């Protein structure tokens, strides 16, 4: 055994490898159709690739400024003002990050002190809880209600204590596909008014929202922007999850602290890709068509598996469809998901890892429909045979 083995004192002895890594690895081992991890199996736009190449050839290959390329921050400021009516100053209130993941890590670490409590809604994207705990904070989990996964705001009010420092919201929501309504935001405003509670708003699926529902960005609500950190990702919107570029918007007094940490986590992020996005996001047509693009895929998958024994749960946004398999099996979701890979060569994601306690998860799986229509048709054939 290595000499230093006993010296490593885990900060997270119970933390497992991310469920996405586990399922994707198993999917490739068994040659399964992969509806597990949330990434497209189709390419991003050729023009975007051409822009990255262009800037690489042009020599934009050295460190970017710490908060990001100014031209990109200016383009984002314009976009956010046009879409949501809020003004964020490119110099002081916008920072480009290595994906939303780094923005989330930095946001939580900037604001959470030992003993602080953070309200997190379950099922929860798996990057929130561990980071809160790394900072010696305490996640306070509140269950969203099956089958439409709405938030009971009375429960939120009851969970607020003098230690509550932050509420993390995520709309459209991974894994459930639920979205926050104006009514939800009204409750949120009432709850935080007059408190010292910050809002981290994970909006990475802001453009993937269906049935003409409006995305309730925190940027629409001046009552929240003063205490809000809005986080989004180019990966989801532009089919470039592997480029790991995202951003955070926050008022200057918060962003100043955020950047103190950001500079020592990564300093700056990929330069030619930032230049390419600065050009590319000026064209609204990409994200304007994205709803329709993914709504088609949601409906295709839904229609194809309607006759199956899976119960299809509501999906208002994101590129995930939740299905209940109670009519097929009563085994826990983790075992059932592994069984599907081994016996039927189809990979999904069990939702128990999105809960602090697997007991709350029920018999539900998450299917990613950011896939070619052909992949979805093949997957549906398999699902209908189960
Ligand atoms: C809700 C949510 N937040 C954040 C992220 C991370 O985004 P990024 O790949 O830009 O780090 C994801 C990715 O799946 C997500 O689903």
Description:
- This protein is of the alpha/beta class and about 375 residues long.
- About 40% of the residues lie in helices and about 15% in strands.
- It folds into two domains: about 140 residues, Aspartate Aminotransferase, domain 1; about 240 residues, Aspartate Aminotransferase, domain 2, CATH 3.40.640.
- The strands form three sheets. A seven-stranded mixed β-sheet has the order 2-8-7-6-5-3-4, sandwiched between helices. Strands 9-10-13-12 form a four-stranded antiparallel β-sheet.
- The longest helix has 21 residues.
- Bound molecules: pyridoxal-5'-phosphate.
- The site of pyridoxal-5'-phosphate (PLP) has 14 residues, from helix 4.
Comma- or semicolon-separated keywords:
2 domains; 14 helices; 386 residues; alpha/beta; 15% strand; binds pyridoxal-5'-phosphate; globular; single chain; Aspartate Aminotransferase, domain 1; Aspartate Aminotransferase, domain 2; seven-stranded mixed beta sheet
Query: For this structure, what is the CATH homologous superfamily of the largest domain?
Result: Type I PLP-dependent aspartate aminotransferase-like (Major domain)
Largest sheet: 7 strands, mixed
Gross morphology is: globular
What fold name goes in the CATH topology slot of the largest domain?
Aspartate Aminotransferase, domain 2
Give the N-terminus to C-terminus distance in angstroms: 46 Å
CATH architecture of the largest domain: 3-Layer(aba) Sandwich
**DSSP summary: helix tally:** 14
């Amino acid at each position: 055994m290595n000499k230093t083995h006993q010296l490593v004192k885990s900060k997270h002895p119970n933390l497992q490898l991310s469920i996405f890594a586990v399922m994707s690895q198993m999917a490739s081992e068994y040659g399964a159709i992969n509806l597990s991890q949330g990434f497209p199996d189709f390419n991003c736009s050729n023009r975007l690739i051409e822009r990255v190449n262009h800037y690489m050839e042009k020599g934009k290959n050295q460190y970017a400024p710490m908060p990001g390329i100014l031209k990109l921050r200016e383009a984002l400021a314009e976009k956010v003002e046009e879409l949501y009516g809020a003004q964020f100053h490119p110099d002081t209130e916008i920072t480009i990050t290595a994906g939303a993941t780094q923005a989330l890590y930095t946001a939580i670490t900037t604001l959470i002190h030992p003993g602080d409590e953070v309200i997190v809604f379950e099922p929860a994207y798996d990057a929130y809880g561990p980071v809160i705990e790394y900072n010696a904070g305490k996640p306070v989990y509140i269950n969203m209600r099956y089958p439409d996964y709405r938030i009971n705001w009375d429960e939120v009010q009851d969970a607020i204590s003098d230690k509550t420092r932050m509420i993390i919201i995520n709309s459209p929501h991974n894994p459930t596909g639920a979205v926050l309504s104006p009514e939800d935001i009204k409750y949120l405003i009432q709850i935080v008014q007059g408190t010292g509670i910050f809002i981290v708003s994970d909006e990475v699926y802001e453009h993937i929202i269906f049935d003409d529902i409006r995305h309730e960005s925190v940027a629409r609500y001046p009552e929240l922007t003063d205490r809000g950190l809005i986080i989004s990702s180019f990966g989801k919107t532009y089919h470039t999850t592997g480029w790991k570029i995202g951003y955070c918007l926050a008022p200057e007094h918060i962003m100043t602290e955020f950047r103190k940490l950001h500079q020592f986590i990564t300093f700056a992020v990929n330069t030619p890709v930032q230049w390419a996005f600065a050009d590319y996001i000026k064209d609204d047509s990409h994200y304007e068509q994205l709803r329709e693009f993914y709504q088609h895929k949601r409906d295709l998958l839904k229609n194809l598996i309607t006759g199956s024994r899976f119960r299809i749960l509501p999906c208002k946004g994101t590129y995930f469809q939740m299905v209940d398999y109670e009519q097929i099996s009563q085994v826990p979701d983790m075992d059932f998901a592994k069984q599907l890979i081994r016996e039927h060569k189809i990979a999904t994601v069990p939702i128990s890892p999105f809960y602090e306690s697997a007991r709350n998860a029920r018999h539900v799986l998450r299917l990613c429909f950011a896939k070619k229509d052909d992949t979805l048709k093949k997957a549906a054939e398999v699902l209908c045979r189960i």
